[in-house]
Amino acid sequence: MRIAVTGREGQVVQSLLDRASTAAVTVVAVGRPELDLADPANVLPALRAAEPDVIVSAAAYTAVDKAESEPALARAVNAEGAGAVAAAAAALGVPVVHLSTDYVFAGTKNGTYVESDPTGPLGVYGATKLAGEEAVAAATPDHAILRTAWVYSPFGANFVKTMLRVGETRDVVRVVHDQHGRPTSALDIADAVISVARNLAASRDPDLRGVFHLAASGEATWAEFAEAIFSSAAARGRKVPTVERITTAEYPTPARRPANSRLDGAKLGRQHGIVMPDWRTALEITLSRLLA
Fold first, then answer.
1. What's the CATH superfamily of 2-158+183-217+263-278?
2. How far is CA 78 from CA 3, 92, 122, in A?
3. Is residue 217 within 8 Å of residue 182, measured between CB atoms?
4. Is 246 exposed, middle or buried (0-12, 13-18, 19+ CB in 10 A)?
5. Where are the chain's structural domains?
6. Distance, C-alpha 228 to centroid of its chain
7. Kind of pairing, strands 184-185 and 180-181?
8. Rounded to a whole number, what is the distance in angstroms from the first to the last CA of the chain?
9. Looking at the chain, which terminus has fewer C-beta neighbours within 10 angstroms, N or C?
10. Residues annotated as part of the active site
């Protein structure tokens, strides 16, 4: 199977490339300058040249805070660009797997979010990603939209790498303790995306299509996530700081974050047979690579 994935440097793209050989698939990363989501006219030619069996729509505008001051660009990439990728998939007669986010929800629910729960993004990033979901669904019925959350990996910039970096120079790190989610390894996301892509390519079953939640098992606050990172680093002989648990109000940001980002992955398990590992187990795998 040949997968064309949009973007070159993102965590999911790099993780797909990392997993390609062991999964016995070919992954072709298609990004700028050949493919620029802010210029939809180049999307179809770039993806046609990749000759895909399945397209993975992973590229996005992900600067959550900066999006508040760049709403037009965020919408061009996350909404119009995502729609152009899905339209290209339809034109090429192949399925599309689109990556979305927990930020489509307001975060006010008690308990985990299921796919049918009402959306209510709090900021520009979430609103444009939700618009992207709608654009994908409108462009082709042959889609699987995977909402994920709190993504980290050995690649790119992410919370785990930030904590390891700041932990080397600080005695105390202040981390928010009133936002709850499911830290999810991009390596596990890549494994799941490949499985979903295979299922879509092999079957026209409508139950394999639609919106699914893709997040690790278990849950944590950002502070608990940081504490787990430092605990593992300390066990490997690294100097680590103390985590000071703070509230969201004590760490203001331009964009509001959902207080509850816990995504229920049961539907993905039922329809695609994918059960994500516990976040602590997945974290150890990533840290073993970062701290080797």
1. NAD(P)-binding Rossmann-like Domain (3.40.50.720)
2. 20, 21, 16
3. yes
4. middle
5. 2-158+183-217+263-278
6. 21
7. unpaired
8. 32
9. C
10. 125
